[in-house]
């Protein structure tokens, strides 16, 4: 159809140019024999004003151009006399692809609540808010690859269906082709998964880390960027059952290299959004007030505060705020504690390092103190944890003892232990929850509003 995207018209349009635009009508009004249509095509935050004079063929088609209609318009680009816009199109012809019944189309001009928009997940990308969220998400995805490719990391694709439980938390979705009405009996009343499709029990992955580790132990520096699944029954504003994670893994690296990579990564992502999505961020700043161009500018440069878990506990013990959950060395930090550190004490991102080993996963490297592991979490204001990472235990005996202590069966993990038998080396990595960074940057308060099709307990409609 040779259409021009509205974004391109605003960035490189020439006055007097004849053009064709396609999009969805945001609004239509008529005055003194001229009609005005605000058209959006998803490429940009702004709408393009179409001016339809009464004497044109287009004018007769206006009855089919209600809010929500998909149309094609032909015309000439002109300087706009209206306020707030540089360009408009003087339209000569319109083709209506599909009108939308004004009595029924759910997205009328008034603002809708985010809760209501979640009920119409298939139409919400047509709103300013969700258009902006998904464009920011796109820019961030691209920036992820740019960042790692620029540093020589190799993008690897780890499996979605797996037989290993990386986090050992047990909240995994089972993948099966067994007949659910006739499950084969195994011993002790269990199901006999040897009769299942893969000959053993399989799951949707909770993390690509274990596979990324063997790829790093041959390719050097690698990263993954893919969907991960958690069957936690967490109905919160920061948990999804299906989310995207970016997991870099570096050979010949320690926990300090890991923290530095995490900090550089977040700086770069914030910087890129500022550069490419200024209109979107300005929109979020104006309407949702949880983010700002200024804040992002600081986030793209300011070094992160680093402190140990032990220091974090001391900070929390000093607090005059009352917490719902207890603060005690050895207990995990709850989101209220994380937020106290980021929002109240340090007023910015914080990296907490060296957590007690008893609250962390089996693969993390034990520190010489015998009590803590070289684990780090990046915490950010309002959202809390966005990155979890560690230096990995590369010493075979230490790892074996640790796995036995935690009751992790060694027989299925021999390939993982092999990496410690043959050419073991220090290595480290982390996982960034992609939706959490989109949330952080856009200031959207619910994680379900930063992914097109959110999956959460009891929620899979769209
Ligand atoms: O801290 P987590 O569980 O770490 C891992 O999975 C490691 N294997 C990563 C690694 O070292 N390669 O998860 C990493 C991040 C969290 O910090 C959080 O941002 C995000 O993944 N995340 C979730 N995001 C949305 N919904 C959930 N249910 C999430 N669970 C974790
Ligand atoms: Mg974590």
Instruction: Report the total helices.
Output: 12
State the assembly state of the protein chains. single chain
Name the average pLDDT.
Answer: 95
From the spread of the alpha carbons, the general shape counts as elongated
Bound ions, cofactors and other small molecules, one mention each:
4-amino-1,4-dioxobutan-2-aminium adenosine-5'-monophosphate, magnesium ion
Largest sheet: 8 strands, mixed
Q: What is the total tally of β strands?
A: 16
- Termini separation: 30 Å
Q: Strand order, biggest sheet? A: 6-10-11-16-15-14-13-12
The string of secondary-structure elements, in order, is: HEEEEEHHEEEEHEEHHHEHHEEEHHEH
Strand content: 15-25%
Structural class by sheet pairing and helices:
alpha+beta
Model description:
With 462 residues, the chain is an alpha+beta fold. 29% of the residues lie in helices and 24% in strands. The chain is built from 12 helices and 16 strands. The strands form 3 sheets. An 8-stranded mixed beta sheet has the order 6-10-11-16-15-14-13-12, with helices on both faces. A hairpin with a 2-residue loop joins β1 and β2. α3 crosses α5 (255-276), α3 (128-150) packs across α6 (278-287) and α5 (255-276) runs antiparallel to α7. The longest helix is centred in the N-terminal third of the chain and has 23 residues, at 128-150. The radius of gyration is 26 Å and the shape is elongated. The model has no long low-confidence stretch (mean pLDDT 95). Residues 166-167, 207, 209, 230, 232, 239-240, 243, 245, 247, 385-390, 429-431, 433, 435-436 line the site of 4-amino-1,4-dioxobutan-2-aminium adenosine-5'-monophosphate.
């Amino acid at each position: 159809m040779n259409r021009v995207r509205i974004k391109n018209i605003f960035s490189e349009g020439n006055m007097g140019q004849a053009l064709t635009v396609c999009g969805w009508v945001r609004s239509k009004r008529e005055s003194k024999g001229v009609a005005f249509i605000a058209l959006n095509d998803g490429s940009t935050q702004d709408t393009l004003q179409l001016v339809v004079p009464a004497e044109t063929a287009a004018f007769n088609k206006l009855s089919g151009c209600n809010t929500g209609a998909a149309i094609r318009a032909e015309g000439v680009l002109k300087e706009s006399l209206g306020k707030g816009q540089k360009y408009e199109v003087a339209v000569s012809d319109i083709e209506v692809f599909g009108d939308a019944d004004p009595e029924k189309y759910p997205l009328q001009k008034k603002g809708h609540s985010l809760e209501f928009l979640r009920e119409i997940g298939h139409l919400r990308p047509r709103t300013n808010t969700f258009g902006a969220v998904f464009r920011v998400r796109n820019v961030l995805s691209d920036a992820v690859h740019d960042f790692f490719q620029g540093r020589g990391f190799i993008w690897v694709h780890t499996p979605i269906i797996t037989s290993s439980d990386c986090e050992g938390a047990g909240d995994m979705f089972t993948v099966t082709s067994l007949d659910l009405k006739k499950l084969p009996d195994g011993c002790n009343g269990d199901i006999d998964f040897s009769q299942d499709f893969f000959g053993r029990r399989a799951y949707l992955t909770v993390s690509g880390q274990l596979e990324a580790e063997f790829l790093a132990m041959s390719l050097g520096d690698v990263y993954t960027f893919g969907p991960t699944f958690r069957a936690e029954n967490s109905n919160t504003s920061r948990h999804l059952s299906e989310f995207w994670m970016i997991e870099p893994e570096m050979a010949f690296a320690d926990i300090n290299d890991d923290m530095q990579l995490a900090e550089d990564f977040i700086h770069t992502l914030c910087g890129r959004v500022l550069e490419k999505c200024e209109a979107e961020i300005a929109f979020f700043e104006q309407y949702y007030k949880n983010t700002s161009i200024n804040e992002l500018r600081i986030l793209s440069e300011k070094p992160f505060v680093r402190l140990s878990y032990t220091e974090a506990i001391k900070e929390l013990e000093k607090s005059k705020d009352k917490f719902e959950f207890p603060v005690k060395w050895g207990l995990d930090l709850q989101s209220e504690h994380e937020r106290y550190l980021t929002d109240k004490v340090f007023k910015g991102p914080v990296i907490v390092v060296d957590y007690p080993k008893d609250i962390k996963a089996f693969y993390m490297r034990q520190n010489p103190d015998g009590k803590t592991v070289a684990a780090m979490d990046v915490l950010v204001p309002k959202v809390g944890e966005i990155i979890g990472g560690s230096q990995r235990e590369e010493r075979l005996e230490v790892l074996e003892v640790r796995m036995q202590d935690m009751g992790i069966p060694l027989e299925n993990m021999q390939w993982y232990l092999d990496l410690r038998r043959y050419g073991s080396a220090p290595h480290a990595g982390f996982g960034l929850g992609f939706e959490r960074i989109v949330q952080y940057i856009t200031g959207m308060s619910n994680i379900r509003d930063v992914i097109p099709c959110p999956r959460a307990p009891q929620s899979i409609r769209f």
